[in-house]
Amino acid sequence: MMDLIFKPRLAAPALFGAALAASLLAGAAPAAAEDCKPHAIDLGEGKSVQGGCAPLKIAFLSAATNNLYLQAGIKGAKDAAEKYGVTVDVFDANWDPATQFNQAQNAITGGQYNAILAEMNDGNQACAILSKDAMEKNVLVAVANGPLCGKASEEGEALWTSGTLTFIGGSQGRAAFRDWILDIAKTNPGKQKVAVITGPDLNANTINTDLAIEDVKKQFPEFEIVGVARTDYSVLQGNQKILPLLQANPDLTILVSNYSDMTRGAIAAVKQAGMGGKLKIYDYGGNGWAFEALKADQITATRMLTPYTEMYKGVEALAKAWKGEDVPRFTPLETAEVTKDNLATSKSEF
After folding, report:
1. Are residues 209 and 247 in the same domain?
2. What local confidence, expressed as pLDDT, does residue 1 receive?
3. How far is CA 110 from CA 23, 91, 125, in A?
4. Strand locations in 63-129, DSSP E?
5. Does residue 188 sit in the same domain as residue 280?
6. Does 132 lie in the same domain as 19?
């Protein structure tokens, strides 16, 4: 039986012990010594780490833990850990790249972990430590959601970084956000005034949303972006950051939010501004709340994310490679649009 144990975060000097230590202890018995075959795990470009008989202990560097998306990812990691008989400890960075960098450093040098599942707030800052330093300490790294080393706007296998095992994602990549916002523009021809809500600076999703906005401006000049609000992905900031934009632009026609919790807060702001029923609201996330909002005609459409699958596959990839199985460099995740037309046949992961 495996339990997720949350411990409080401490001050910076004790970041490693401050980890949201979620010990997902395996019920499976360790392999017999005669069945154990140490082997090199290929990380590309002639790089490798040694896999073998030691129990696999994974440090899951989570971007944060304060929303349902992230919690679904933790659940996915937990379930995969149980299936494959490994240990996973979850570290809460609370959206702080510096905190997360220190957590990565401690996981690599502390000697307690031989693998990392990385969901980084700043993939550029973490580039060398996860693709080079970890390998030198024989720590196997799988990256999910946000790529490393300036690859946020790449597509397909180019999202993977040599020195790491694999990248799992794409549903929040360059192509996904570009196609989403371009589709909104195509569906709404003519003059539009649009506000956009995104996450924090440096986050890969924010970078790709910004790039998508630039694509739209080139192809659909009448799709006018009048403001972009940055948030921490919370309901509260979705409300606080969008309300001034609504008040300054009473003729706004479209609201675009790249995460459902922010959308939820924005809908409250729309009501506060007396603009209910006047806006088309497009959501990216597709959580349980978004499904209910569709039923109630509060939003026009949502795009589904798959956080449970993302982190399940991250732990699965590490476990398989540790056992000597081949793992693809890139595991793509798809996102589907949900409207009232296909709501009944769709299922949210969080």
Report:
1. yes
2. 33
3. 17, 14, 20
4. 87-92, 115-118
5. yes
6. yes
Residues 198 and 314 in one domain: no
Short-list 289, 263, 268, 121, CA closest to 197: 263
Instruction: Establish if 192 belongs to a structural domain.
Output: yes
Can you read off the two tokens belonging to residue 324? 């000597």
Would you list the DSSP string of 134-175?
HHHTT-EEEEESS-STT-TT--GGGG--TTSSEEEE-TTSHH
Q: Coil, helix or strand for 58?
A: strand
In this structure, what CATH number is given to the domain that contains residue 51? 3.40.50.2300
Q: Which residue has the tokens 């000097």?
A: 13
The residue with tokens 């699965």 is 316
The verdict on residue 51 lying in a domain is: yes
Encoding tokens for residue 290? 């978004």
Residue 325 inside a domain? The answer is: yes
The residues that bridge with 92 in the sheet, in sequence order, are 62
Q: Are residues 241 and 163 in the same domain?
A: no
pLDDT in tens, 274-330: 998 899 999 999 999 999 999 999 999 999 999 999 999 999 999 999 999 999 999
The DSSP symbol for 202 reads T
Q: Is 337 within a domain?
A: no
Sheet strands (E) in the chain:
39-44, 47-51, 57-62, 87-92, 115-118, 140-144, 166-169, 192-198, 223-230, 254-257, 280-285, 301-304, 330-332, 337-338
Give the structural domain span for 271. Answer: 174-304
Q: What tokens does 131 get?
A: 């693709």
Beta bridge partners of 257: 197, 283
Judgement on whether residues 189 and 293 belong to the same structural domain of the protein:
yes
Q: Do 130 and 103 fall within a single domain? A: yes
Task: Please give the Cα distance from 309 to 331 (Å, whole number).
Answer: 11
Q: Which of the 8 DSSP states describes residue 31?
A: P
Distance CA 180, CA 186 (A): 10
* Residues 27-74 pLDDT 10s: 343 444 446 678 999 999 999 999 988 999 999 999 999 988 999 999
Residue with structure tokens 């959501």?
283
pTM of the predicted model as reported, rounded to 2 decimal places: 0.81
Look at the chain and report how many structural domains it folds into: 2
Name which of 222, 192, 198, 194 is nearest 211 in CA terms: 198
- Least confident range of 174-178, 249-253, 265-269, 326-330: 174-178
